Amino acid sequence: MTHQPDPLSHAEQTARDWLAVIADRLGSDDRHFTYRALRAWLHLVRDRLTVESAAHLAAQLPEFLRGMFYDGWKPNRVPIRFDARTFAQRFAREAAISPGDVPAVAGAISDGLSALFSPGQLDHVFALMPSSLRGELQGEELRPTAPAPRSSGEHVRINALEDSVMALTEAVSALARGLENVPTNEPQGDRAAKAAQEAHRILMSQGTPQT
């Protein structure tokens, strides 16, 4: 009988290689901690993205890590709007670390993933994030600001504006992809119609005003 190689061995080794890169960036030999921290990063970033952007990000992951990425995902509820402070609290809870350690850990993971993803992939993801959350993912500590009248309302408005810009960017990208003149068996009209439907869905999910 001819020996057949384990069909899962390559996928498992690739996942281990990725975790090794993340562990190196974290400066840790604890594989359980590395796994928890990476899982927290992926889940929180995933939940802040639209369905389409999350799918593009997941496509970059090894097969086993892609399963971790989608575990517990509720696509009908995304994107979930949360700021850098909520991100830090959730990250700390899921990774079982102190909130004060979140910027360093999140930044190290971002650095590792930037080397593993296709060039520019992580930059695209960060461009879809509010500036405060983008800083947290890049390892910048959240600086407390002195309370001021209407600061909370202003913060909410800024986050809402950034979310609207993100939605418009995603919608334009979806339309552009649908109008690209690329070799395909699908009629151009069908592709354009699907792209328009996807753009409409993105705008509706964000509650972005349409003209």
UniProtKB/TrEMBL annotation:
<feature type="region of interest" description="Disordered">
    <location>
        <begin position="180"/>
        <end position="211"/>
    </location>
</feature>
<dbReference type="Pfam" id="PF10025">
    <property type="entry name" value="DUF2267"/>
</dbReference>
<feature type="compositionally biased region" description="Basic and acidic residues">
    <location>
        <begin position="188"/>
        <end position="201"/>
    </location>
</feature>
<protein>
    <submittedName>
        <fullName>DUF2267 domain-containing protein</fullName>
    </submittedName>
</protein>
<dbReference type="InterPro" id="IPR038282">
    <property type="entry name" value="DUF2267_sf"/>
</dbReference>
<dbReference type="InterPro" id="IPR018727">
    <property type="entry name" value="DUF2267"/>
</dbReference>
